Amino acid sequence: MKLNVKRTCRIGFAFFGILLLWQVYDSWCPTFLTDLFAHRMYGLTSAELKLSDPDKILNVQWLVGIIMACDNLAALILLPLFGRLSDRTHTKIGKRMPYILVGTFVSAVAFPFIPLFFHNGSMAGMIIMMGVVLIFMMMYRNPAVSLMPDITPKPLRAKANGIINIMGYLGGGAATILGVFLKLSDYINVTDRSRKMWIIEIPFIVASLLMIISAIVLYFSIRENKIAEEMKEEMAEGERLAAIEEPATDEGPMPRANKRMLLAILAAEFLWFMSDNAIGTYIGNYVIYYLNASSGATMILTLGGGLASAVGFLIAGGIAEKIGRKWTVCSGLFLSLLAGLIMILVRPTGKVVGANGEFSFPALLYGVWVIKGFGMALVHNCSFPMVVELCTSKKIGTFTGYYYAASMSAQTVTPVLLGLIFMRTGAWGVLPVYSSVLTALSVLVFIVWVKNIRIRKVATVSGLEAFGEDD
Fold it and tell me: Quick check: helix, strand or coil at residue 352?
């Protein structure tokens, strides 16, 4: 049984575009919204409010959370919908590719309008553009992620998922590098409104261009129908070797043991995404408004975490072969919990280093992000294959929808809930506490209710030999 590494890397271009867009979206949009709400509620920019009454910045975070949650609420509906639709689609270019191409091009065209409307103070225009981008990214995301298990036998999916995620993190890394050189804080911290629009516009334009390029590469290098026909025998053998209690079937109801496993994985996933998205949504504001540090440091932080994640994705498949996917996921969650507990100790340094009165960045936070990035790579690498392991090839889009429904429902709840907690406590320090509690609960659910079913040993081709395989 052969994992075609070269082809898997090409499929990874889809995930490259996904993480590229989301990294820019999550890093910039919450701060844009904070600034607009500060101006709407108090008649001041967020920079002016930070100088005059910094506690009021916390009072707008629940509103920021609502807008970010509305995006995720739409995704909760659209991801399963497009997954099910793509399962039933049959065209000359495949069942996933039409959704990938349309979703990519429309969202790429709309994306640069988000900072344009923000710069002109149009909250309605910015939110509408965020909605357009989100809808068409949902059209793209589920089919793009489903493409890997469509043409990868079940025993090889953990390793293939590692490659896919590394490609995605290259996209996230590209966005992060943009944030290092085009610092959002250089725009936000200007109090006289003489802001240089190109600082915030260029990252969105570059992200759009790279997304389009990644979709073009995917289209010309992956022939869905041809590959699916060639892989029929290996896919059938993969079904036989699946790491599940009961064989997956398209006939009748889902076997009870498999359903119990699915619900347990999704419940734990909901909790760890509640935790992870809390950090992802508010880290930009946490750095700018609590640590009073440069947003460029946030990008370096993200880059360090991304590199640690790449290492995790690289070795997660091998770890899962030795100890099983369950304990690989649990190990990653324990590391993420450790990172959250260390983050509780982080405080503003008080050492002024920037022209705008910014403090130096706490070095401890870099260590936190490396541990967290590595840990969550182990989690994400094995959890998705565990979900699609429980279905046949005819329902991969549907089960991918279940996976993303759990993650998006978590990301719908957590920004609003944490925003309200910020408002009630008036303390940015609740962020790592909130995240740590949810991670601990996800560990508990996974240990108690998810079984460790080992994949049966199969002979695989990897490394340079796999790269020599031709399509």
Answer: strand
- How many Å apart are CA 464 and CA 445, to the nearest integer? 39
Return d(Cα 17, Cα 169) in angstroms, integer: 10
- Count other Cβ atoms within 10 Å, centred on residue 34: 26
Q: How distant is the alpha carbon of residue 97 from its chain centre? A: 21
Please name which of 379, 316, 389, 326 lies closest in space to residue 155, comparing C-alpha atoms: 389
Closest CA to 417 of 265, 273, 263: 273
Could you tell me the pTM of the whole model?
0.79
> Helix (H, G, I), strand (E, B), or coil: what is residue 118?
helix
Helix (H) / strand (E) containing 25: helix 5-42
For residue 242, the model assigns a pLDDT of 75
- Widest distance between CA atoms in the chain: 68
The domain ranges of the chain are 5-220+232-457
Given this model, what pLDDT does residue 59 score?
83
- Residue 77 CA from chain centroid, whole number: 17
Q: How far is CA 440 from CA 156, 334, 337, 453, in A?
A: 29, 8, 7, 23
Quickly list DSSP for 205-226: HHHHHHHHHHHHHHHHH--HHH
Query: Could you write out the DSSP letters of every residue in 284-297?
Result: HHIIIIIS---HHH
Average pLDDT, the chain: 87
User: What three-state secondary structure class fits 359?
Assistant: strand
Residue 182 has pLDDT above 90, yes or no: no
Assess contact for 207 and 179: CB atoms under 8 A: no
Least confident of 45-59, 87-101, 255-269: 45-59
Whole-angstrom distance, CA of residue 463 vs CA of residue 471: 16
Model pLDDT for residues 268-325, shown as the tens digit of each residue = 999 999 999 999 888 888 998 899 888 777 778 888 888 899 899 999 988 988 898 9
And the tokens for 193? 């409104």
466 confidence band (pLDDT: 50, 70, 90): very low
Between residues 247 and 86, the one the model is more confident about: 86
What fold characterizes domain 5-220+232-457?
Growth Hormone; Chain: A; (1.20.1250)
Q: What angle do CA 340, 280, 346 make, to 5 degrees?
A: 40
